[in-house]
Amino acid sequence: MEQWSFPPKFDPDYRPPAGSRYWFPKRETMPAADRDHAILERLKSVTRYAWDHSPMYRRKWEEAGFHPDQLKSLEDFESRVPVLTKKDLRESQAKTPPFGEYLCVPESEIHHIHGTSGTTGRPTAFAIGREDWDSIANAHARIMWGMGLRPGDTIFISAIFSLYMGSWGALSGAERLRAKAFPFGAGASGMTARAAMWLDLTRPQGLYATPSFALRLGEVARTEGYDPRQFGLKVMFFSGEPGASVPAVRDRIADMYGARVIDCGSMAEVTPFMNISGTAETDGMLLWQDIVYTEVCDPNTFHRVPYGQRGTPVYTHLERTSQPMIRLMSGDLTLWENGPNPCGRTYPRLPQGVFGRIDDMFTIRGENVYPSEVEAVIAKLADYGGEHRIVISRDGTMDELLVRVEASAECVARGEAAQSTLRTTTGKALQTLLGLRAKVEIVPPNTFPRTDFKARRVIDDREVFREMNARLQD
After folding, report:
1. Residue 242 in contact with residue 455, Cβ under 8 Å?
2. What pTM was estimated for this model as a whole?
3. Regions of the chain where pLDDT drops below 50
4. Residues 110, 183, 290: CA angle, nearest 5 degrees
């Protein structure tokens, strides 16, 4: 397979032929069984490397009775290698700060340090070696090629440049692709309006952001007198939150900008996080298995579920030497399939992307509900104003769900009757999809703040629920 070794080595000057659909044709289109055989051989190398270099993995595997010499099949890998959790990573870094006992390269080789914010406890530090940063850039460039982006294109990166890995990963890929990288950033006051100005000025071919920011940017651009469709964007790719695989959200962004909308992104710890990504021809997200081997597993047994079923992704690096993740349990929820892909790549696919996190799920009167499912319903409504909030109450004997929905300015202009119709329509749509009744409150446009980052739309607050319920009763 093209440029596939461990530790990885890539030709920094390599580019596919200009008319090629694929960066690495053999790796991307080979029979799945042949790829699985190659992945098994790589897993033997990766587990042996971790055994030799990481006290954390050696100790964890010894406790589970696993040794790399036992790997004879992918089924052995699934059944013998225990999953890794974020709790394991935090405990390892607390024991051996700052990078933990799973840093498998000398500290002198660290090239980038990123991490979590630590707002809910001890932050997790991500240490990425110099050669790994090159591997990440190569992987992301390859995937961005699959999105339809090309050398010389301008790629506008409108995400926060801080601890957040998304913006830096997109930048590394754009630079390796030999594109014109525009690391615009996000987050500062007034920056969204300036983004619209720069988009109008530079007319880039690609844009990276979160779906929430893209929607906000489109709204602000219109108020500033710009037509987002005139920015000339051909590819918009997103990570950081569910949305770009939700048809109503995806279509809304695509219609707003006249661009192809592509979902990508797994976890910061798994960087190259674009290891799951759509392509120019294929919706949903492909599992680029020769970069990061991904199993979709039952969240209780951590055994792979059959294609067509839901589970949580479990990730294993195949091209990382610094802090390699081996069977890292994501805690996300998805559904996978293994059929022909329009782009011709022979990877499994997540047709609906990543729904959200398992721990984001809430239960209302016995029904499991995910915020992305609520968003999928509301975003289809003609009079939806662009934002909503989900309010959960667990007070009293029955769980209750109240959804606050912004009406569009046009809906408000048509009067109370139109808002009442929107309320009824929303309630019926939610009941049809979720199988339960929800109370719906229609609120004016721009009631809820827009965000430059990940939207937080779920409120589990009984006092807030009581106040809203009182208003509805009045």
Report:
1. no
2. 0.82
3. 462-465, 468
4. 55
